[in-house]
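Dear colleagues,

As part of the handover before I leave the project, I'm documenting each prediction I ran so the next person doesn't have to rerun anything. This entry is a single chain, and its sequence is reproduced below.
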Amino acid sequence: MEFHFPLLPRMFMAIAEEDRYPIIDIMRQTPEIPENCQWAIFLRNHDEMTLEMVTDRERDSMYRIYASEPRARINVGIRRRLAPLMENDRRRGELLTGLLMSMPGTPIVYYGDEIGMGDNIYLSDRDGVRTPMQWSIDRNGGFSRSDPARLFLPPIMDPVYGYQSVNVEAQGRSPGSLINWMRKLISVRQGYKSFGRGKLSFLQPTNRKVIAYTREHEGEVVLCVANLARSAQQVALDLSDFKGRVPIEMVGWSPFQTIGVDRYVITLPGHGFYWFLLSETAQAPSWGSELPEQLPELTTLVLSREGESTQFGGRALALAETDVFPAYLPQQRWFAEKTSKLERVTLVDTARFDYAGVPCFLSMIEATNRYFLPLAIAEETSAGDRPVSARSTLAKTRTGARSGFLVDAFGSDAFVLGILNDVRERKTTPSIRGGSFTATPTDALSALEPAKEPRVRRLDVEQSNTSVVIDESIVLKGYRKIHPGPQPELEVARFLATVGYENTPALYGYLEYAAPTGETTSLAIVQQFVESQGDGWAVTLAYLERFFDRHHDMTANQDLAPVDETAGTYHDIFIQRARTLGIRTAEMHRAFATSTGDPDFEPEPVTQADLDAWLAQARESAHTALDTLEREIERVPADIRAFAESLLASREALFARLTLPPVERLDVLKTRYHGDYHLGQVLVVADDFMIVDFEGEPGRPLPERRKKSSPLRDVAGMLRSINYAAVAAMRGATTDRAEDTSALEPSARDWERRSVDAYLGGYRETIAGTRSYPGDAEAATQLLDLFVLEKAFYEMSYELANRPAWVRIPLEGIRNIIGETQAEPAGAR
């Protein structure tokens, strides 16, 4: 059964009046669709936009707006194609098409509308919209080889819509053409059953120029938002029913911020529309990280005064330890024990400072682990506003008749600038419990002229530490979770500065705490701030997304340049970058192999005991990963599950493959190394790289992060990161995307292979002759393979526990190293 749905004339009216209600009214008057009915929705109802289903007033308005020329009218309708109806405004045409494609039923596009064809209203009856299809610039628009006079109807030949300027062949060669846009939209729609079968529910934003509705089917939710006005509009939508989901714009596949309890604000360009998949598994963009949950009602701490100094102790400190700290810490991203119920947090030690009239306290607290939590007392402004952000505020304070707030001092500009000044002046301050806080500069900081009016900027991304940028030239990084003993990042920065390695930010100074026992703890580091295009991971993904979009366009349109002819040239620039990264990595490892007499960095011979320990560590990683895989085998994607099962069935063969050559054959030195090396740890600066963040893997104990080992562990980490980038970009990094990405796999593998070859080529040429790299090429490959496998098994355990959709990446990495056949148990064939 077929219905001619009367919604489309109302869509035209809604756009003309810039008001969504003509659409919603007709939808409300329409009875429920029987399941056995097929709804066919036509844009213009074939060759006439019939107006017999609208009111007389609406018909008169439609005539006045869309058919002011009487020849365009026929019966009780309008005989015009879509493009002339929209005055050849592509944005309005796309908007109507987007509404058509997102409504219930089967959308039908009349021929010619996919390229924006015009009409000839000077022909009789409905012949004006039945002109020959415009295929090319050839005779009769490529429709027929006959003499033009013998055609039943003449082709369109005017300068705007004529076949010389509007035809399929020309648009097929332009990636941004209307027909290619239509192909993309249809491809997206075909991937989701919600559009054709899903329930339709209208939202009611207060902005009447915006229409918003959801399509839901079997747990799949699509949000459609359209701006009916010619000007840009902002709309706030009540999406609280979908709290926690991430909207993904379905045409460009871009994630937006996570939906919360507040109204969700969206800005749309004139006549713009969005389709959002409301995903439960996708990740929100990192640049817009969510703020911590709203803090509870603030406790008021009554502080005492000694002379002119505000003191933080006595009953105020006791209340902070039992109430304020336990409420504040779990809200912070850098706090590690979020699942623990805090009864009490103890102040370990503190020292009072005054920075620009702001009382500050360099404080260390203990809650299972030890943390650096500097505090400041900021006075309340006359307007009653908080002087720093809410997420940095711990409590209210009252000192005599003066009120203020107890805040995390990293939120105070006075504190940040005060610490930098203390570093410049090499200041040491005793603590209240017999220790001391010492700020130490380097010669590099002394060479910098202090700014007269320094500016402070806080980085948007809050991770395990806190970083603040000063004058776009200095970054102060405060370590939150702290440990007695040397901080790997600080001691590596000192060492690299000593040996003259230049591709890492310069060290300007540091802040340390010395306990009464003499044991030191690093609290903060001051380094050069490097302006960059972003980290290697973000730059690589952006590059691959552009390449794969181009690949998709070329594959879908055979008229564009072949993929194989352009891929090589397109990759050349990035391949050269990969080679440069290999060179910089090798230079770092050569620096670590430099003998300076420092026992913490002095290279040492690799012994058989070292090799046995490395081998045992790799086998333990494999054992843990395979046990996890066996328990979670149902979470592995179906297309790679067969390999996962064969991997489980061949444990013994796999462990037998985890071997190393004897120590005599390797004959290498072990040194310090980066420890957590991947694309996210390098900054792209023009066509070069700066290597950052030498803390090592945060989850590992401090002594383990300071151990010496083979620098090939860093190389293995980078190879796995390159593989992650290739697969993540190819598959959109989410299982929600319906588009088939298998066609991209050959190009992704080719990019990965060429990048790895370039990286290893630059590395091997530069590292040659260094005692930390094996002189035997086969032994070096065997050692590198062991570290890559160990890393891949570690990743497999992590992904199964946290992101099952990503487990294919380490599994495919393991398959690439050991091969398909080696994963099969004996007798499998």
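The mean pLDDT is 83. The longest helix spans residues 563-592.

All the best with the project,
I.
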